[in-house]
Specification:
Blueprint: H1 16-19, H2 55-80, H3 94-101, E1 109-111, H4 117-122, H5 132-135, H6 144-147, H7 158-173, E2 179-184, H8 191-202, E3 207-213, E4 216-217, E5 220-221, E6 241-245, H9 249-264, E7 270-275, H10 294-301, H11 305-316, H12 321-343, H13 363-382
Parallel strand pairs: 1-2, 2-3, 3-7, 6-7
Antiparallel strand pairs: 4-5
Helix pairs in contact: 2-3, 2-11, 2-12, 3-9, 7-8
Length: 384
């Protein structure tokens, strides 16, 4: 699905505070944020961000979120069945990822963490390629330059520096493109992220920092990360920040599109805090019942991003039952394809782990390769 990039207005310079102001429909008990679609599926307007999508485009956003959630659920099940070693679920964060992913242009470059399965979907990365690393058969599974989507980064916060350096290079090349870096609320406390903010501001790099504040950095709540809303941290570095309703795919799309266009036109970096919620565990090795209450999850389930958009589609006549039925069939087919792909993934050759470490080779790697080969050979000798 493509969306017209002229639909959203650029945020006014120096207006990040106003851009973060709550709308009347946002409710008086919630945080101040940009919202275009309420939890009840009602369309509202915002003074700094607007968007006008066709019925086809709205259905496309819904399809993206539904298929991403189905893929994610299938991957979680495969891990429970022993087919994957680990999985990091995005359950609840579909709007933040699909909205921001669909805001990018084909020539923009994306630096993800390890949970951006929805963004990968938007960038055209085959979902089955995301699973090789979690099965332990490869180090990534896709060519990052084919889709301008970098390999998943496990080290917390380091991708913010990678994105900043890449964006500085984009600026020096004079390219008409932008870079976006994803990280979580916990990663916002990392020194790498602070350094990325500093360098991007000083060098006016065309980069958007997209923080998915899902309320929990594993078992640590957001209040253990900051005393102020995360988006306000940008002010100390000299560039604007905005908080958007991360469960509102329309608002995320509008805000991210405007931020990327701002970066492309030489106005420098911007921080987006997508205020959302991780409905599931941090990873499949985590038990969230140990540190958060069921009532908290139930509160956020009422703000489900997929249900929100479906309500809007049905209320405004943008989709009929035939569309939803066809999507369910497509969802089942995707799940089967994922299951089949994982169970038939070939194991790598034993010595492949030593390949492509250094471009010109390295003495230490050569030594380790020889030691491992001797170790493997010892089993053959014992079996004689």
């Amino acid at each position: 699905m493509t969306v017209d990039s002229t639909a959203a207005r650029k945020p006014r310079r120096g207006s990040s505070k106003r851009a973060g102001a709550k709308t009347a429909a946002a409710g008086s008990d919630g945080p101040e944020l940009v919202q275009l679609l309420t939890p009840e599926g009602e369309r509202v307007e915002h003074p700094d961000y607007s968007i006008d999508l066709s019925s086809e485009e709205l259905r496309g956003l819904y399809r993206d979120m539904v298929l991403t959630r189905r893929f994610d659920a299938e991957a979680t099940t495969l891990q429970r069945q022993g087919e994957l070693g680990l999985w990091a679920s995005l359950l609840g964060q579909e709007a933040a990822q699909i909205g921001s992913g669909r805001a990018t242009r084909h020539d923009d470059y994306v630096f993800p963490t390890y949970r951006e399965h929805g963004v990968a979907w938007c960038r055209g990365v085959d979902p089955t390629n995301l699973l090789g690393m979690f099965r332990g058969v490869n180090h990534g599974g896709w060519d990052p330059n084919e889709n301008n989507f970098h390999l998943y980064t496990i080290v917390i916060g380091s991708q913010a520096l990678h994105a900043t350096g890449y964006a500085m290079g984009v600026a020096k090349d004079g390219a008409d493109s932008a870079v976006i870096a994803y990280f979580g609320d916990g990663a916002s406390s990392q020194g790498d992220v602070a350094e990325a903010f500093t360098f991007s501001a000083v060098y006016n790099a065309p980069v958007v920092f997209f923080c998915q504040n899902n309320q929990w950095a594993i078992s640590e709540p957001t209040e253990r990360q900051t005393r102020v809303p995360l988006y306000q941290r940008a002010q100390g570095y000299g560039f604007p920040g905005v908080r958007v309703d991360g469960n509102d795919v329309l608002a995320v799309l509008a805000v991210t599109r405007a931020a990327l266009e701002r970066a492309r036109t030489g106005q420098g970096p911007m921080l987006i805090e997508a205020f959302t919620y991780r409905m599931g565990a941090h990873t499949t090795s985590d038990d969230p019942t140990k540190y958060r209450r069921d009532e908290e999850r139930e509160l956020w389930e009422a703000k489900d991003p997929i249900l929100r958009l479906r309500t809007h589609l049905e209320r405004e006549g943008h989709a009929d039952e035939a569309f939803f039925a066809a999507l369910e069939t497509e969802s089942d087919a995707l799940a089967k394809r994922v299951r089949d792909a994982v169970r038939t993934m070939p194991d790598p050759e034993d010595m492949a782990i030593f390949e492509n470490i250094y471009a010109d080779g390295h003495a230490l790697v050569d030594e380790e390769r020889a030691q491992f080969a001797a170790y493997q050979a010892s089993f053959a000798e014992e079996s004689k």
